[in-house]
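Predict structure. Input: ribonuclease H, 563 residues.
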Amino acid sequence: MGIRILNYLNDWLILAHSWDLVCMHRDMVLNHLARLGLRVNWEKSKLSPAQRISFLGVELDSISMSARLSPERTQSVLRCVATLRCGSAVPLKQVQRLLGHMASSAAVTPLGLMHMRPLQHWLHTRVPRRAWRQGTLRVNITPSCRQTLSPWTDIVFLRAGVPLEQVSRRIVVTTDASKTGWGATCNGQAASGVWTGPRLHWHINCLELLAVLLALRRFRPMIQGKHVLVRSDNTATVAYINHQGGVRSFRMSQLARHLLLWSQHRLKSLRATHIPGEANRVADSLSRQVSLGGEWRLHPQSVQLIWDRFGQAQVDLFASPESTHCQLWYGLTEAPLSIDALAHSWPRDRLKYAFPPVSLIAQTLCKVRENREQILLVAPFWPNRTWFSDLVLLASAPPWRIPLRKDLLSQGKGTIWHPRPDLWNLHLWSLDATRRISETFHHKWDLRSCGIESVLSVLQEGLDSHLSAATLKVHVAAISANHDLVGGRSVGKHDLIIRLNPPRPHLIPSWDLAVVLQGLQQDPFEPLHSVELDALSLKTALLTALTSVKRVGDLQALSIISS
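Output follows.
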């Protein structure tokens, strides 16, 4: 019937979205109890709907969506704390009774469990475990014990309350630690560090918990003011975060306290969950300062653009079960469930896709040339690399630049993004060892010794055929890769070749930022207390632009109106 009841034994609280609905549900529940023959204690019951109500010692407020200790429960805690006077000897059961009050209040007290841990640690150092059930045992209350109780004597702390909020989304931070260092990922970003000094001798559980604190500090700009979920393969770390400390390890409890106090005013909430070790490979590799074996994976949407333009490949030549884009794939090594792509033959009747590590591009091109293969190769446009000339000669068409996006390259199932994919300048090269772009020139001229006039003739034919500048650039690179030097320079750097498609001059003169900043420290921009308003405005606008604009072109939009 859709009636929401919060119950504990014979105490029931009916919840609904409106006054009328809660009245209707109240009547339905009362009628049902009457039919069952159950009697209601009318004196203790509150049958009028309210948005502020005390239930089981907790004051619930649906207006501010918060929960706090009721005034009666607050006074009960204060009276119990007052019985533990410094220098007195009290029965152990009295201390245990206070711990019970703290535990029942912790859910609606900010970091209540964490503030209860110091008293637990103090008690564990003075009372043997076997004596906990001996109610006649008496405990001497020391100044250090009273110090652990200081938060529980503050009525503001006891009545602060906690928000009643349903969390629909959390920022996930995955962490791991080893004896050498720590690693973490968040939203595709990676962070890591190494242990030094005494931390090299810490227990691994302490290092795992410390790794969480270091990771949250590193990712603070991304998680500030958010609900955060920490994923760790260490069960002790998960427990000490969710339970706000513990009693088994004092050092871990102190680390948890430091972590929770740091998070209290920076995060909306902090929770932890366990992740199997085999699923935490990325953070584990970062903690051991080891690079991932799978290198980088192209984003699936970018791969789909390649399929749409060049046809869908059926074989991925350099992949793993996690990174492959095709059902049939080859690996980087002879690992279990994989076949080394460079050590075995490739199927001839299927379109092949390859994104090898940069260190394997030369070997890949050698295999393509020797076996006369046809593949779709993703590789950087780096003309200075030794393998680039082979890449150009094997290309059957001009390369296609892969559109840039911030998550273009990833590792570890997309948990780590490459911070600067633009530096790779990735292109898709359609390689065909049976029909190459250089054949356009071979049938007319000797690529090694033909004159500049012949090269210019070929490029002019390309211009007349409306070839793009990018295509002509590939043609020049193909010729330069095999042509002898002309005047001590490659063909591509010859003046006549450059003049054929000259670079565009810079319309805006270049300037030195260091010189500008030095000038802003002198008259008429300094000292600030005597600066004219127009000079101060100009200085403020320029410094703001320098620290906020994302493109150099935005600075060119600045102008000064003399009036």
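Residues 334-338 have pLDDT under 50 and may be disordered.
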